[in-house]
Structures are given as structure tokens and as C-alpha cells.
Amino acid sequence: MRKPGNIYTRITNPTTAALEGGVEALATASGMTAVTYTILALAHAGDHVVAASTIYGGTFNLLKEPLPRYGITTTFVDIDNLEEVEAAIKDNTKLVLIETLGNPLINIPDLEKLAEIAHKHQIPLVSDNTFATPYLINVFSHGVDIAIHSATKFIGGHGTTIGGIIVDSGRFDWTASGKFP
Question: What PANTHER family does the entry give (predicted)?
């Protein structure tokens, strides 16, 4: 290439990031790929995740079955019980994973309070914003650090296409905690 630029959405896409108000976005092959990439980018063998117990079944199963075989453990919490969320965070916790609107319950967590808890422990709050979409709820304005979407649902038209999106807000200080190389 003679001149650098955005040649593939799967590498970087400022337009997709702009939808959410983020700084960078990555398109993936599916929503579950977006979830998996996000977790594996932040957590490695010996690390821990705190996740809402009411998350999408595919995400729940990813955290419950294959990831522990690779040394990544998860504590599932009642996301509405903020004391339980904070008590579940350990020294090796790398993220708090929630859904903006829970699937299938459509429960709505307190994003600001959860962000406050996560940031107090110098870890990012990651929200699957699939059901809400960036059109209805801008999660970054409520303290979320990374938004994930299954474009297969509302963004892409209810299963007519398959895709996923990861968007970084650009607000989390990845170096301050020393937890993220």
C-alpha cells in the first residue's frame, strides 16, 4: 500500500466506531465471535471474569464450558445486586461482562453504578449492546468501556446476515492498572 487507510471493516472501521461514539471498532464473523475475541483479548489462563447470570445462553455456555479448560474462570452474579458484583471481583479479574438489555429477560442493569465498581478495581465494564443497539442506548455515555454487538439481530435485520462488532470507547486507561500488557 502506498497510502494507509481503512480498506477492510474487519481490520478497523471509524464509521462503525462513530455509531457508538467509540474510537475504534472491529467487525467479526458473528456476535459470539465478538464476545469471544473481547474476552480472550482481556483474559488469559489464570484470569477471572465477573458476568451477569442473566446473559445470553451462548455467552453463558462459553464462560461455563470451554473457557475454564483454558484457565479462564467466571463468577456469575445477580447483576442487580451491586454488593454481590463487587464481592465477586478478585485480584485476577479482568472484566465485568453484562448486557445492556438482558437476553432473554430484558432486565436493565445500572450501567453507571456497574462502571463505577469496575473502574474502582481498574477493570473495564463490557456490555453486549445487541438488544439495545447504539440507536436506543449509547452505553459509552453511561460508563461502559467496550460495547459488543451481534449484528445478526437488530443491526443486520433479525438473522438475515451474520456478524459481530466490538467497539472501544477510548476512555478506559489500559495502562493504569498494570493488568493489561
Answer: HOMOCYSTEINE/CYSTEINE SYNTHASE (PTHR43797), HOMOCYSTEINE_CYSTEINE SYNTHASE (PTHR43797:SF2)
